[in-house]
Here is the input.
Amino acid sequence: MEADSSFDLIVIGGGINGAAIAREAALSGISVLLLEKDDFCSGTSATSTRLIHGGLRYLEHAELRLVRESLRERELLLKTAPHLVEPLEICLPITRASRRGRFTVGLGLTLYDLLSPGKSVPAHRSLGREALQQILPGLAPDGLVGGAAYFDAQLRFPERLVLELALDAAVAGAVLAPHTEVRELVVDGGRVSGVTWRSGAHGGIARAKAVVNATGPWVDSVRGRSRGARLIGGTRGSHLITLPFRSAPARAVYAEAASDRRPFFVSPWNGLYLIGTTDERDTGDPGSAVMTADEYHYLVAETRRLFPGATDLEHAVCYTCSGIRPLPDSGSATTGAITRSHLVVEEPGCAGLYSIVGGKLTTHRALAEDCLKKLRPVLGKRERSPTRDRPLPGALPIDDRDALLADAGRSVGEATAARWWRTYGGASRALLARIAATPELGRRIGPDSDLVMAELVHALEAEHAHSLADLMRRRTMAGLAADLGRRDAPLVADSLVRLAIWDQARAAAELASYRESLRRFAVPGRPQTDLR
Here is the structure.
C-alpha cells in the first residue's frame, strides 16, 4: 500500500464483521481497504462458542426478526462453507427445577422450526426421560423429566472463515492490510475523509468517501472520546477447553445453570470439549480479557452438576479463552437481555464515519448487507447482494471434495487429508500444487507432528500470515490443540529456518513471543507454566 492512497471505502477491523463488509463491498464493485492492527480474527471473533445458530433463547425476548435472520444465515453457511460449518445436534435436558417445562420448550422449538422454512437440517424431536438418558447416559438423573433434541450448526474454526472472507474480498480487488494500525481519523470540515496508518516502520494516509469502524469492543477507542456517548457496553464471555472427561456427552448439550439460570453449552469440538459461556460486564481492555476464578469455578460446578460422573473435570481442563462481546451500551440489569441485533451507527456531527455495534458470527453476512444499504447514499446504488449465494473460496461440490480427499490422501495420508479439508477446504489443492513443485514441502515438520511444511509456506505467501501466532492459531490451527501448540511451535520455527524464510534470531523472537501470548489462556489457580 502506498503512503498516500485513495479508496471508496475504508474498513477498520479484521474480525468477522469487518471482513464480511469488505467482501460485500468489493464484490459490489467498490474499492476497499481493510485495515487490522493485529491479524485477522485475533479478537472477539475467535473467542465465541463456535456456533452458527438461530438463537433459540432470543425467542423469549420476542426477537423474532433476529431469529428468522439467523436461521436464514445458518442455512446459507451450511451451503456456502460446508468445509467449516457442519450440522450440530444439540440436546436440551429439562428438570423439575427448569424455568421452562416440556410444553414451553416444545412450543419454542416448534416456532424455531417454523421460522426456518426449507431448512436442510432435521426438525426438533421431543424426548422422554429414558430416551434422553440413552443418548446422554452420563446426565444427572435427579429431577430429570425429559428434554428435546434440535439442530443448529458448529463453525469449527471462525479464524479460517474470517480469513476466507478477507481473501474473497481480495479476489474482488480489496486491499488487505493486517498488522496495520490506524493512528487517527482524518477529519476535514466535520467529515471523516480517511485515516492515518502505521505498519512497522512504514506509514501514511488513506483517504475514502466513507470509513466503517468495525473494531468490535474497540469501537469507542477508534471513535475517540469527543464523538458522543459510548456505543459499546461489552460483556465478557469465557470458555473452558477440556480433554474428554468421564461421562462427557457424545452430543452437544444446551443446559440451564442451576445457580443463576443462565444457559450454557457443553460441546464436542476439535477432538476436545468447549464449555461455556459466561456473560459478565467488562469495561477493561478487550485485548486483556481473561477468565476469572469465579467464572472457572462456575463452569466447573455447573458441568459437574449436569454430569455427576465428571470427577476428573478439573484435571481435564487444558486451557481457557475469554473475549468481550461488542454489545450496545445498555442500562439493562440482565446482560442476557441485551439485544444481539446489530446496529450501523452514523456518527452525529461527523459525517462519513459509520460504527458497527453488536452482531454475531451467524449474521455477519446480513450485517454486511445492511451496512452497504446504509452507505448507499455515499457509495451509490447496487444490485442484489453478491454474497447471498456465493460459496466461500474453500467450498467445493461433493464430487470435487471427494476427488480432493483422494488426491491428498495419496500425497500426505488420509488423516492429514481429512484435516486439510476441515481446515483449508478447496485450498488444499494449492497445498498439493506446492508439494508437486517442491517435493521438500511435503515433509512433516517433525516425526510426531501432522503439520506439513507446505502449510507454512502457503500461509506466509498466500494467506497474509506474519507471525508464529498467526501460523499456529489462525492458519494451521495447530495452536488450538490441547497443548495450545506448545509441541509444534518450536518445530514450525525450526522449519522456517531450514527453509531460509526466517533466520535464527527471528525464530527465537517469534517463539518467545508466542509462548508469552499463551498466558491469556491460563487456567485460574494453575501455575502459568502448567499449560498442557
Observations:
- The mean pLDDT is 94.
- The chain has three domains: 4-45+159-231+339-379, 85-155+234-325, 398-521.
- The first strand starts at residue 4 and ends at 12.
- The domain at 85-155+234-325 is CATH 3.30.9.10 (D-Amino Acid Oxidase; Chain A, domain 2).
